[in-house]
Design brief:
With 424 residues, the protein is mainly alpha-helical. It has helices at 2-52, 58-63, 69-93, 102-124, 128-151, 159-186, 195-230, 233-246, 250-265, 270-296, 300-307, 314-340, 344-369, 371-395, 406-423. The protein is 83% helix and 0% strand.
Length: 424
């Protein structure tokens, strides 16, 4: 367990550093307005990808060892194509991103969806190394391509980021195909007549799970569009950097929940999965709390030096975001308990309530408090979402936990030392 969780954390730590470097590069070369435009494009790609993954994504993880892989692929590929066509039509009539980026958003979201399908099969097979490799390749290749464009003066506009995504997603797609091929070859049986029933299973689980992700992503990022409307793209750029920095503490709980989800999906022992979720929650909250304190007490001048003078107010925004960001670690870990048992509706309900809270609070706070109002509304939404998930977990007969006890810490530290000693 320690080895896999630490491995996941290591990959996410490196990915977070690379993503931070992307934010720094874009901020330094394009300024707050360019960073805001980049954030809006990336957010729209993420939103379309979530709809793509309604028949794919987490539901494939759950069904990989229950249904034929080839049939899973066919059903999810067809759905991705359908969503891509529909999203293109919608974006033409709803001006959420500049017209010049619409086609790129559709194409990149489709590629991202196919990579996600392949990654989900690898995760369902508990092949975490390959899964982590695909997760790491996108930010790494994006950074390299961006640096080449900026330093060699090839392109210093927001389009440079879009071009870097084409390179990153395209090469990652090729790698994902190579990694998943061995599993496809083992599953040589394919019956077209079973594709419809496979699609129904994927949609049944995927709709509930992706509904949660849709609500969650919108509750996280809809304030970007409120800010753009009321304050302009520069404010979006400043706010998006503050969000990116402080959300980096979630990589701790995400690393934990990745191993947890794969384990619970392949277990039938409810008591075991409940107990392990409680234990993982304690350590996730503790480590996230320590990491959050470190980020909050970094001087504001450092962030201004890192991103540019326009980003001097990041530290203040992070204090507004901090309470909700920390509490949301509950939703990240406990939410994967329900996903692992196929109870995706719990996360959908929690995230849906969180989205309603975000829209109401953003509508109220942003016109008066501006960028601070966006941060405050987000924090409130994180707290409410987490509270709903905790209440459902309590209904399962689980305990409400915060931090591990001193004795639990000593035991864990001892186990970790033994593990490291064996590795040495």
């Amino acid at each position: 367990m320690f080895r896999k969780i630490l491995g996941n954390f290591g990959v996410r730590l490196i990915s977070a550093i690379v993503n931070l470097m992307i934010a720094i590069v874009v901020s330094q070369y394009l300024g707050a307005s360019g960073k805001g435009e980049q954030s809006l494009v990336l957010t729209m790609i993420a939103i379309v990808t979530i709809f793509d993954n309604m028949v794919g994504g987490a539901s494939i993880v759950f069904l990989t060892n229950k249904l034929r892989i080839r049939e899973l692929f066919v059903a999810s590929y067809v759905w991705t194509l359908l969503v891509s066509v529909l999203s293109c039509i919608v974006l033409v009539f709803v001006e959420l991103v500049p017209n010049k980026f619409i086609l790129s958003v559709v194409i990149l979201s489709a590629i991202s969806s196919i990579v996600s399908i392949h990654s989900s099969v690898l995760l369902g097979k508990e092949n975490l190394k390959s899964f982590n490799l695909l997760s790491f390749l996108v930010p790494l290749l994006s950074l390299v391509t961006l640096l080449l464009q900026f330093t060699l003066n090839w392109n210093r506009t927001a389009e440079a980021y879009v071009y870097s995504l084409y390179v990153a997603y395209g090469l990652t797609l090729v790698v994902s195909i190579l990694l998943v091929m061995k599993h496809v070859k083992k599953d040589s049986v394919f019956q077209l007549s079973n594709t419809w029933s496979t699609f129904q299973s994927l949609f049944y689980y995927g709709f509930q799970n992706q509904l949660a992700h849709i609500f969650q992503l919108l509750s996280f990022r809809i304030s970007y569009f409120f800010l753009q409307r009321d304050c302009g793209e520069a404010e979006v750029g400043i706010y998006s950097n503050a969000v990116s920095v402080i959300e980096s503490i979630w990589m701790i709980s995400t690393s934990i929940s990745l191993w947890q989800y794969a384990k619970i999906s392949n277990s039938t022992d409810v008591s075991y999965t409940k107990n392990i979720t409680e234990q993982l929650t304690k350590y996730g909250l503790l480590t996230a709390f320590v990491a959050l304190l470190v980020l909050l007490f970094i001087p504001a001048e450092f962030y201004a030096w890192l991103f540019g003078k326009e980003f001097r107010g990041l530290n203040e925004l992070m204090w507004y975001l901090a309470p909700g960001i920390w509490v949301f670690n509950y939703a990240l870990i406990i939410g994967h308990y329900f996903s692992g048992h196929g109870k995706y509706y719990v996360n959908a309900i929690a995230s849906g309530i969180g989205l309603v809270v975000t829209c109401a609070s953003a509508y109220y706070f942003i016109p008066t408090l501006k960028i601070q109002g966006a941060a405050l509304s987000a924090s409130i939404s994180y707290f409410v979402t987490s509270l709903v998930v905790i209440l459902y977990f309590r209904k399962e007969g689980a305990n409400f936990v915060v931090f591990p006890s001193i004795s639990e810490l000593k035991t864990t530290i001892g186990q970790l030392k033994r593990h490291l000693f064996k590795r040495t």
